[in-house]
Structure to design on (605 residues):
C-alpha cells in the first residue's frame, strides 16, 4: 500500500519517456528504471499485485522521483549513468572486466607486442581476450621470436641483449624503417587472426631437428609451444566463415531469475563464453533488464567492442546500436541464428541447474530455519541475530553479533562491540551487564535508523543472558522480539534451546531438537559461528592492547611513536626482528630505535 505522498505524486506523472528513481525511508536510491511511458510504468508498481523480488522492492519504497527525457535512447543512456552513480541494491550489479589478457601491438614509432589487461583508446591493435593466460604468454613469446619488433626501451646507443638473441629489430641503437615494422605487424596480425599454418610448419620442423640432434628438452619446448598456440588461436572449430569479431547475447527467464549467456566469436571461432544469472526485480521487464545488462556490460572497465552484436527477436536492436555505436543484428536464419539458439540453450541449462541447486539448498537452510520457528511455536521469520561475549578474567570484554537470513550467514551484517562501562569497574565478566549493554546499543540504534528488526534473537548462553536481553527489549526499548538461549552440554556441545518470556509471566522452558535434524545442525552452526567471531575479535583486540602496553613500558616511546610501530609492524615479533634502520624508517630517532631493540631482545631472553 503506497503512502499518501506517493499517491499524490502518482496523479501527476506524465505519459512520456524518462527514468524513475525509487527511494527507501532514508532517501537512498534502491532502484533505477526507464520507460517509454513513465505514467504507466511507475503506477504499475503500486496499483497491481506484486510477487517475489518486486514485492520486496515495493515494500521498501518510501518515495520516488522521475527525470523526463525526449527519447528512448536518452532514457537508455540516463539509466546507465544513474545506475553507475547510485549503485542501487535492486538493480543488476556487474563487476568490472573479465580478468582475461589481450595481446596488443602498440601504436608507436617503434612498436612492440605485449600482454595487457587494460584496453586504452590509443589506436593500438588488440587481440583477445584469451581465457588461457599461460597459452597467451607462450604465444606472445613465440611471436617475439618469430616476428620480432621492439623488446627493449629503445635508444640505448648500443645493441640490447634481445637484439643479440634475434628478438629485437634494433631500435636500441639504430633507426628501423617503417616498412620493416609494417611487414612484421602484417605477419603477426595474420597469425593472430587464425592463419597459423606457416607457424605450425616451422615449429614442427624445429621440433624434428631438435629431436634428430637428441636435444629432447628443446624438442619438448617446441612441442609445448605448439600446444599453447593451438589452445590460444586454433582451439575451437570454425563457427562462421568471415573474420568479424562478434558477441552473441541471449537469455532465459524462469521463477523470477534471468540467465544471460554471452558467446565471444573471435577469428571465426568460439573463444570463450560467460554466464550471468540475476534475480529479476520485474519479470514483465525481462527484455528491458536484458537490454540494460548489455549496455552496462560494455560500459564496464576493460571491455572491447566487437564489430557486431547478435541479439534475439524482440530486443530493441536499433536503440542498442545507437547507444553503443556498434552494429546490432537480430538473425532469423543460418549460422548466426544457430549460434543464438546455442546461447539460449546454454542459458537455460545454467539457470535450470541453479534453480535445482537452490531448491536443494533451501531444504538445508530455509527449511532448517522453518523447523526452528515451528519448534518455538512462532510464525516463520527470515532474520535471526545471535550474540556472544568474550573476555579474559574481565579484561578487554567484547561482544559479537552474527546475522543469518533464511538459514544463510549474512557476513556483511556481522557487527563487533567493544564493551564500555564494565571495564572501569573490573566487571568485564558480568554477563548480565555485558548482555544489557550490547542489546541496548544494537536495537536502540536500529530503532533510531528505522532498520529491519530480527524475527528471532539467539543468545549464546542460558537463563541469565535470555532474562537480561528480554528485560532491555521489553522494559527499556518496548520491542517485542522473541528471544531464545542456545545451551551447551558439559562437553561444550550444542544441546537444546530455552524459550519463553518471563516479563509477561511465561516461564522459560526447554526446547529439545532432534540431533540429526537440519534445525539442530543450523543451531549448532549459528552457535559455532558467533563464538568464532567473538573469540577472534577478542584475541585481535587483546593482542593489540598487550603490544601497546609493552611498548608503553619502553622509556622514550610515547603514544605517537607507539602508534607508528603498531601501524607498520603489527606484532612484537616483527618489531623485535626489525633492524635499527627499519625502526628508524618508520620515524623513530636512533636513540628510540636502540631502546626498542634493547628492551625487546632482553625481554625475549
Amino acid at each position: 500500500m503506497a503512502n499518501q505522498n506517493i499517491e499524490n505524486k502518482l496523479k501527476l506523472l506524465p505519459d512520456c519517456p524518462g527514468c524513475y528513481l525509487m527511494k527507501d525511508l532514508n532517501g537512498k536510491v534502491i532502484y533505477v528504471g526507464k520507460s517509454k511511458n513513465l505514467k504507466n510504468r511507475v503506477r504499475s508498481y503500486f496499483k497491481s499485485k506484486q510477487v517475489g523480488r518486486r514485492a520486496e522492492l515495493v515494500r521498501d519504497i518510501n518515495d520516488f522521483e522521475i527525470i523526463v527525457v525526449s527519447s528512448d535512447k536518452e532514457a537508455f543512456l540516463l539509466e546507465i549513468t544513474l545506475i553507475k552513480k547510485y549503485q542501487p541494491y535492486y538493480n543488476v550489479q556487474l563487476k568490472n572486466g573479465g580478468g582475461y589478457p589481450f595481446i596488443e601491438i602498440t601504436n608507436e614509432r617503434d612498436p612492440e607486442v605485449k600482454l595487457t589487461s587494460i584496453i586504452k583508446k590509443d589506436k593500438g591493435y588488440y587481440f583477445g581476450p584469451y581465457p588461457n593466460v599461460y597459452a597467451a604468454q607462450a604465444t606472445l613469446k613465440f611471436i617475439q621470436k618469430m616476428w620480432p619488433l621492439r623488446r627493449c626501451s629503445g635508444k640505448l646507443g648500443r645493441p640490447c641483449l634481445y637484439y643479440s638473441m634475434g628478438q629485437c629489430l634494433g631500435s636500441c641503437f639504430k633507426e628501423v624503417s617503417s616498412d620493416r615494422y609494417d611487414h612484421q605487424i602484417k605477419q603477426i596480425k595474420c597469425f593472430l587472426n587464425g592463419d597459423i599454418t606457416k607457424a605450425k610448419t616451422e615449429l614442427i620442423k624445429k621440433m624434428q631437428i631438435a629431436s634428430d640432434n637428441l636435444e629432447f628438452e628443446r624438442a619438448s619446448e617446441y612441442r609445448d609451444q605448439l600446444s599453447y598456440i593451438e589452445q590460444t588461436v586454433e582451439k575451437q572449430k570454425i563457427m562462421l566463415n568471415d573474420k568479424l569479431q562478434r558477441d552473441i547475447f541471449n537469455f532465459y527467464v524462469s521463477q523470477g531469475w534471468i540467465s544471460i549467456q554471452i558467446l565471444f566469436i573471435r577469428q571465426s571461432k568460439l573463444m570463450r563464453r560467460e554466464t550471468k544469472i540475476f534475480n529479476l526485480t520485474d519479470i514483465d521487464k525481462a527484455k528491458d533488464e536484458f537490454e540494460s545488462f548489455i549496455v552496462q556490460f560494455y560500459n564496464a572497465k576493460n571491455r572491447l567492442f566487437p564489430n557486431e552484436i547478435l541479439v534475439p527477436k524482440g530486443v530493441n536492436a536499433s536503440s542498442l546500436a545507437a547507444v553503443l555505436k556498434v552494429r546490432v543484428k537480430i538473425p532469423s536464419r543460418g549460422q548466426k541464428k544457430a549460434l543464438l539458439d546455442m546461447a539460449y540453450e546454454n542459458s537455460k541449462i545454467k539457470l535450470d541447474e541453479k534453480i535445482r541447486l537452490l531448491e536443494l539448498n533451501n531444504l538445508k537452510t530455509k527449511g532448517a530455519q522453518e523447523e526452528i520457528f515451528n519448534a518455538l511455536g512462532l510464525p516463520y521469520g527470515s532474520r535471526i541475530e545471535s550474540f556472544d561475549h568474550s573476555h579474559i578474567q574481565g579484561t578487554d570484554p567484547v561482544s559479537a553479533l552474527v546475522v543469518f537470513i533464511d538459514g544463510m550467514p549474512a557476513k556483511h551484517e556481522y557487527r563487533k562491540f567493544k564493551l564500555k562501562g564494565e571495564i572501569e569497574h573490573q566487571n568485564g565478566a558480568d554477563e548480565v551487564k555485558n548482555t544489557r549493554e550490547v542489546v541496548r546499543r544494537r536495537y536502540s540504534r536500529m530503532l533510531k535508523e528505522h532498520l529491519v528488526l530480527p524475527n528471532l534473537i539467539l543468545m549464546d548462553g542460558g537463563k541469565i543472558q535470555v532474562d537480561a536481553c528480554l528485560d532491555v527489549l521489553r522494559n527499556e526499548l518496548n520491542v517485542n522480539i522473541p528471544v531464545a538461549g542456545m545451551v551447551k552440554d558439559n562437553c561444550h556441545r550444542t544441546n537444546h534451546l530455552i524459550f519463553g518470556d518471563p516479563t509477561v509471566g511465561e516461564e522459560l522452558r526447554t526446547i529439545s531438537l532432534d540431533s540429526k535434524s537440519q534445525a539442530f545442525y543450523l543451531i549448532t552452526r549459528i552457535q559455532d559461528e558467533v563464538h568464532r567471531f567473538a573469540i577472534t575479535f577478542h584475541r585481535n583486540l587483546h593482542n593489540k592492547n598487550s603490544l601497546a602496553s609493552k611498548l608503553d613500558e619502553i622509556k622514550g616511546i610515547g603514544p605517537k611513536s607507539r602508534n607508528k610501530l603498531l601501524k607498520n609492524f603489527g606484532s612484537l615479533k616483527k618489531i623485535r626482528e626489525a633492524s635499527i634502520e627499519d625502526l628508524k624508517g618508520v620515524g623513530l630517532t636512533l636513540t628510540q630505535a636502540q631502546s626498542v631493540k634493547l628492551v625487546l631482545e632482553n625481554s625475549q631472553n
User: Anything to note?
Assistant: The chain has five domains: 4-86, 102-233, 246-356, 370-540, 554-604. Residues 554-604 form a domain with the DNA polymerase; domain 1 fold (CATH 1.10.150). The radius of gyration is 33 Å. Residues 518-552 form the longest helix (35 residues).
